[in-house]
Specification:
The protein contains 20 helices and 33 strands. With 646 residues, it is α+β, with helices and mostly antiparallel strands. The strands form eight sheets. The chain has an eight-stranded antiparallel beta sheet, with helices on one face. The protein has a seven-stranded antiparallel beta sheet with strand order 5-6-7-8-12-13-14, covered by helices on one side. The protein has a five-stranded parallel beta sheet with strand order 19-18-20-21-22, sandwiched between helices. Strand 23, helix 18 and strand 24 form a beta-alpha-beta unit. Helix 10 (309-325) runs antiparallel to helix 18 (483-497).
Length: 646
């Protein structure tokens, strides 16, 4: 997600902010800006492009002052440009904002404000926030900036981090974290305080930090920090001391990198949408793919090739692309691709998926596709990797470094990337009507927030994890688009806990695996309300008939009566009938030692993780993550997030 740095104190804020943003460049961005209050006036410098361009701009047109806020932006609403770059100033010039996330209801807010005469100068959802804050500040009897900010935070929907300053109250910065929209780190200094979206930005200034929780806001002055809930209840925060160590700083409050990356998925999903979704026009932009209408209409077949987790993501992509774009898709494991003598010609796409972009088997499959005259595309996380370089076109996951051994955010991001690809292909081929395309694109606004809601369901998952802590094997069942999610769940349990697990198409249970089911064999059934729901209920009943310990991920009724444990969609209050988070999540086993961000074999112990993250005894911990989209309200589920079991 975008980078944020803020400062309140006696020093000039500009250099502190620019240096902090420089330490956040690893996040990726397409524009940057800074705002300070000087002589009770807000001054802003911002531009598209890299931070060096902003630094040059500040050199040519200097500014100084404090407090101040800065931002590096991945575009989500509106193309990368100076007018769309953050910070955004309100109509009066007295309030300024920077923002991470997606304001789901920005169109409704924009319509309301426009009807009141507000003139919008950018294409962003962010600008609605600053105008809304001004509106509430003007409407409030006392004119309190803090209360105006609170009402603004309560109004906007989605997973968001917002930072506001007002020239009318130039002694403070107000910030809030709404949902799991990435981090808010508040650094505590001597007669000065700091804000950042990640610790490295402020580590040179302080080691004492507070991590803002979801639905909390902070009022920050040079004298101190007050933490409140969005409802106004004061919260006594825990102050953490960060070691002066680069690796420890990057891990922040998390015990190891995999745990951090599990929680970075909301940010990663927002970033993978960045610059690619035009919510106003309801269209997808994937310029690096070099996909023209002529090429889209020419494509007759797509091979998706990948290894391990990426291959399971590809299986989800097959369903999405075939359903939406109506192009036949085959998924072939990378190590088998060149030996299968695939039928490839100039009308065939070979789409490779790889986090590193350096997986040897996947690269060999790409070379086979090129040798046979196919169109070679890739979905890659590592910028500049070989898979990206040798492709005719690519989609960058934009999730940031993945250090943990077991892939998390580089599994969920490609699901969204393939969904966007399916919409773009369908649009260019003319297989989607305008209304359906707009609906499919609009649903992408909900993805980060739904993922964040899943991350809030730890208590339910903790119960399941404790119930399964002594198992020696596990069976995962899913149908349709959830079948590869079952495969991925089983893989994660094997990778992380060293417990034998198998994923199966649910209908195949009776053709062999049922022989293994007894009171010692847990059966995890993925059973959301989709076209296969009734069939999945039948599978749960069969497992119970064999005295199996069933665990269901899906809707409460009738699963309450069937499964021994289940994660339901009951927590999706306020979401329309077409959007349901379907799975919970827990923690990974906690390692005694960490090696390269992974977990060293056979070294587990019970621990309590920060911020109530689960640490359970034994080798099993379950984290399920999924959202659902029923196309036209009745068609099969499109798993935009998927389920991860670890």
């Amino acid at each position: 997600m975008c980078g944020i740095v803020g400062y309140v104190g006696a020093r000039d804020a500009v250099s502190i902010i620019l240096n902090g943003l420089k330490r956040l460049e690893y996040r990726g961005y397409d524009s940057a800006g800074v705002a300070v209050i000087n002589s009770n006036q807000i001054e802003v410098r911002r531009d598209a492009g890299k931070l060096s361009q902003l630094i040059d701009l500040v050199g040519k047109s200097p500014l100084q002052g404090a407090p101040g806020i800065g931002h590096t932006r991945w575009a989500t609403h509106g193309a990368p440009s100076a007018r769309n770059a953050h910070p955004h100033v309100g109509s009066t010039g007295r309030v300024v904002v920077v923002h991470n996330g997606i304001v789901e209801n920005f169109l409704e807010i924009k319509d309301e404000l426009t009807s009141e005469g507000v003139n919008f100068l950018s294409e962003t959802d962010t600008e609605t926030i600053v105008h809304l804050a001004e509106h509430y500040q003007a409407a409030g009897g006392s004119g309190s900036f803090v209360e105006a900010a609170r009402r603004t935070f309560q109004k906007i929907e989605g997973a968001n981090v917002v930072v506001l300053m007002s020239a009318d109250e130039p002694d403070k910065i107000v910030t809030a974290r709404i949902g799991n929209a990435g981090g808010v780190v508040i650094g505590l200094g001597e007669n000065e305080n700091f804000i950042a979206s990640d610790i490295p930005a402020i580590l040179e200034h302080t080691r004492k930090v507070i991590f803002l929780e979801s639905r909390q806001m902070a009022i920050i002055t040079r004298e101190g920090v007050r933490i409140e809930t969005l409802d106004g209840r004061e919260v006594k925060p825990e102050v953490h001391t960060i070691a002066w160590d680069a690796v420890a700083a990057e891990k922040g409050e998390y015990r190891h990198f995999m745990q951090k990356e599990i929680h970075e998925q909301v940010r990663a999903l927002t970033d993978t949408l960045a610059g690619r979704v035009d919510f106003k026009e309801g269209r997808i932009r994937l310029p690096e793919l070099n996909l023209t209408p002529e090429l889209a209409r020419r494509i007759q077949r797509i091979y998706i090739t990948a290894c391990g987790t990426a291959a399971y993501a590809g299986m989800v992509g097959k369903t999405l692309i075939e359903k939406i774009a109506r192009i036949p898709v085959e998924v072939v494991i990378g190590s088998e691709f060149r030996y299968s003598d695939p039928i490839i010609d100039e009308n065939t796409v070979v789409l490779a998926i790889s986090q590193s972009g350096e997986t040897a088997d996947t690269l060999a499959a790409m070379e086979e596709g090129r040798r046979k005259g196919g169109i070679v595309w890739s979905i890659v996380n590592a910028i500049g990797s070989q898979a990206m370089r040798v492709s005719n076109g690519f989609i960058a996951m934009q999730t940031g470094p993945e250090i943990g051994v077991a892939s998390t955010k580089a599994f969920t991001a490609p699901l969204v990337d393939q969904y966007m690809l399916a919409i773009l292909l369908a649009d260019l081929r003319g297989t989607l009507d305008d209304k359906t395309r707009r609906e499919l694109v609009a649903d992408l606004r909900l993805i980060p927030d739904l993922a964040g809601r899943v991350l809030d369901t730890e208590p339910e998952i903790e119960k399941v994890a404790h119930a399964l802590k002594d198992i020696t094997g596990c069976l995962y069942l899913g149908r349709g688009i959830n079948m590869p999610i079952a495969y991925e769940g089983a893989l994660k349990l094997k990778e992380i806990s060293y417990i034998h697990a198998e994923g199966y198409p649910a209908g195949e249970m009776k053709h062999g695996p049922i022989a293994l089911i007894d009171e010692e064999m847990p059966v995890l059934c993925i059973a959301p309300k989709d076209p296969w729901h009734e069939k999945m209920i039948s599978q749960i009943q069969q497992a119970k008939a064999k005295h199996g310990r069933s665990r269901a991920v899906g809707s409460r009724s009738p699963l309450d009566a069937l499964a021994d444990h289940h994660r339901s969609a009951a927590a999706d209050a306020g979401i329309s009938h077409r959007h349901h988070p379907r799975a919970g999540r827990g923690s990974t086993p906690q390692p005694r030692q960490e090696r390269d961000g992974g977990i060293k074999r056979k070294e587990y112990h019970r621990t309590k993780t920060p911020r109530s993250r689960i640490g359970c005894e034994g080798n099993a911990a379950i984290k399920n993550k999924k959202t659902r989209h029923e196309m036209d309200g009745t068609e099969e589920a499109c798993a935009l997030i998927g389920i991860l079991i670890s």
